[in-house]
Amino acid sequence: MQLESLLISRDAALLGVLQPTLEKISVRMEVCPECMAGLALLRKCKFDAVIIDCDDLPGGVQLLDNLRKASSNSKSVAFAVLNGKTTTQEAFQRGANFVLQKPLTQVHASRCFNAALNFMVRERRRYFRYEVEIPVHVKVPQSPELKVTSTNLSEGGMAIRVSAKLHKDTPVSLRFTLPASNTTLELKGEIAWIDGARQAGIRFVEVPQSSQYQLDKWLTDRLQGELPHHLLAHTR
User: Which residue of 6, 9, 209, 211 is 20 to 30 Å from 217, comparing CA positions?
Assistant: First the structure.
């Protein structure tokens, strides 16, 4: 698995610099030449990094504003490419994490993306979902404890199979043991979603610091099989 980026630009020279730069650090790049099409992609697909040609693409600056409103990519690492119209300060105020100035050189691009790589890998871990079936004890207020099975686990929640009827936003207490470890986690969450196939999603809302550390470490170990080896140091 590679990190994923989206370049929203029609500038061939910019593409010519960025493509080999990102290939060197195992980041796949998708290219979109229009802002409206780019916004549609941001609403339905998840990217670790989003690169927006703010000054030379009509609507580019507005797209940078809208990036943080696209739920799938509100936390993605954002790069603003500027060409004299927008100031660096304005780009940061609009939500950019990094700024690239035209004409962009290979050296400058490499320095910027190497500096950003840590944030991109951390973002990947934040939403990384590991498919795993484990027994989970779920306590719903004023109800007997439920024994359910997880279908995936992430830093911020889990999906479960459940036969009992649950209701969205209901607070729950959870207890489960991480596979291949002796670590049992006890934490609090809430029902985030339910579908008709007796599947439900739980959002973690109160996780003790020690449990968060153990969960993050366990997920990082699983992530090792997903990302190229040279990226993994950035998850630790």
Answer: 6
For the stretch 14-18, contacts whose Cβ atoms lie closer than 8 Å and that sit 24 or more positions apart, written own/partner, are: 14/53, 14/81, 14/102, 14/104, 17/104, 17/105, 17/106, 17/109, 18/51, 18/104, 18/109
Hey, what are 47's tokens?
């990217």
* Dihedral angle over CA of 195, 200, 204, 205, nearest 10: 60
Last residue of a domain, one of 127, 142, 171: 127
Residue 47, judged by CB atoms within 10 A of its CB (0-12, 13-18, 19+), counts as buried
| CA 117 distance to own-chain centroid | 13
The enclosing H or E element of 215 equals: helix 209-223
Rounded Cα distance, 235 and 216, in Å: 9
pLDDT at 14 over 90: yes
Question: 104 versus 70: which is more confidently predicted?
Answer: 104
Q: Which domain holds residue 54?
A: 3-127
Looking at 105, 127, 149, which one is the last position of a domain? Answer: 127
